[in-house]
């Protein structure tokens, strides 16, 4: 899906990237997302399944009509512009390459639609394939390409139209883990060189953290948090985001170093705060004991029960219930020495210095 480049901002308009408020009503679901993206910036729409990410992307592409709001690109209103007339390039999750065309002709398709001669379009396509490291595969049809190669052909096809808005829908989802690592690094380099607006839709936090300059987290059709990857990782504001970045997250009322949670437990922090706050700490900050510890310097101590155990990278993650539901990471050896199993009673400790409290 590509558009033409004949859409220009009116005289006096400021070429300021994307300015949108996407309102879409579909049955009982309502999307209402404000989105501003500067030229040269990569923004990732991140959220759980059903949050509205793909609906937002389709609205930007013109494939789903807006129920309200607005959509401006470089000062030009696009609300009523048909998809084929928008200066937009889309890389779909399944790439949607034409199976009967070579890589070269797949990429040349967009320039041909924009009025280039066959020779001009093929020359532009060859240049883009070379830029993306595919000069040796110009004559290959999609079935002969690896997943990573097909992804780069799809990207070249989108970029060959010189779009002012590049949309990427789960661009790495179809790749295996090893290929994904390599292609993610390549894609980051290409996006860094892209001078217009790029919007990435993904549910994968690592893709978002690596590829995007800024994250916009969507839940239930609304933006719940936005900021740089570092800001989001350090200060999550919903349980979904905390789970994404691997943190235990709680909300309570602060009085000095003490935070009292709604259901009773108290946490001690190093920050001095007052009023509603979040408190977060990583599962690796939790130390488990089978007996109540004596002489521990940890200010936070709770009696818990092991609800479940699972492998998490090279560690074991324990899901704990009890006085304070939380996740704890420990080594396989430590889990064995503690004889952890579902139903086992444990004491969990966290040092105040390993917590992070911040205002709601």
TrEMBL record:
One Pfam family this sequence matches: ABC_tran
Record-listed E.C. numbers: 7.6.2.9
Top-rank taxon, per record: Bacteria
SUPFAM superfamilies, per the entry: MOP-like, P-loop containing nucleoside triphosphate hydrolases
Cross-referenced PROSITE patterns: ABC_TRANSPORTER_1, ABC_TRANSPORTER_2, MOP
GO MF assignments: ABC-type ferric iron transporter activity; ABC-type quaternary ammonium compound transporting activity; ATP binding; ATP hydrolysis activity
Enzyme class at the top of the EC tree: translocase
CDD domains hit by this protein: ABC_Carb_Solutes_like (cd03259)
Domain ABC transporter intervals: 15-245
GO (cellular component) term, any one: membrane
Protein name in the entry: ABC-type quaternary amine transporter
Organism annotation: Streptomyces variegatus
């Amino acid at each position: 899906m590509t558009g033409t480049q004949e859409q220009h901002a009116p005289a006096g308009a400021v070429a300021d990237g994307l300015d949108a408020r996407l309102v879409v009503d579909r049955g009982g679901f309502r999307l209402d997302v404000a989105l501003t993206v500067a030229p040269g910036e990569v923004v990732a729409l991140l959220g759980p399944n059903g949050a509205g990410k793909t609906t937002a992307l389709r609205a930007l592409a013109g494939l789903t009509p807006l129920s309200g709001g607005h959509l401006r690109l470089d000062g030009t209103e696009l609300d009523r512009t048909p998809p084929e007339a928008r200066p937009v390039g889309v890389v779909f999750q399944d790439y949607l390459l034409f199976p009967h065309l070579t890589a070269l002709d797949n990429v040349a398709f967009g320039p041909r639609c924009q009025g280039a001669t066959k020779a001009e379009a093929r020359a532009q396509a060859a240049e883009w394939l070379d830029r993306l490291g595919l000069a040796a595969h110009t004559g290959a049809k999609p079935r002969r390409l690896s997943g990573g190669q097909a992804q780069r052909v799809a990207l070249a096809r989108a970029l060959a139209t010189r779009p002012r808005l590049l949309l990427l829908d789960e661009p790495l989802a179809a790749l295996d883990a090893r290929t994904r690592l390599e292609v993610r690094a390549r894609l980051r380099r290409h996006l860094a060189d892209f001078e217009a607006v790029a919007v990435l839709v993904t549910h994968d936090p690592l893709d978002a953290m690596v590829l995007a300059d800024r994250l916009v987290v969507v839940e239930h059709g609304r933006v719940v948090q936005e900021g740089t990857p570092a800001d989001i990782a350090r200060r999550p504001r919903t349980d979904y985001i905390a789970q994404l970045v691997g943190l235990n997250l709680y909300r309570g009322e602060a009085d000095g170093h003490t935070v009292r949670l709604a259901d009773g437990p108290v946490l001690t922090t190093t920050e001095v705060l007052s009023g509603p706050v979040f408190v977060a700490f990583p599962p690796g900050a939790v130390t488990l004991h089978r007996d109540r510890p004596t002489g521990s310097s940890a200010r936070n101590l709770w009696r818990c029960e092991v609800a479940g155990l699972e492998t998490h990278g090279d560690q074991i993650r324990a899901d704990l219930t009890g006085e304070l539901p939380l996740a704890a990471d420990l080594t396989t050896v430590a889990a064995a020495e503690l004889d952890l199993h579902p139903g086992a009673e444990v004491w969990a400790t966290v040092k105040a210095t390993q917590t992070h409290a911040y205002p709601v």
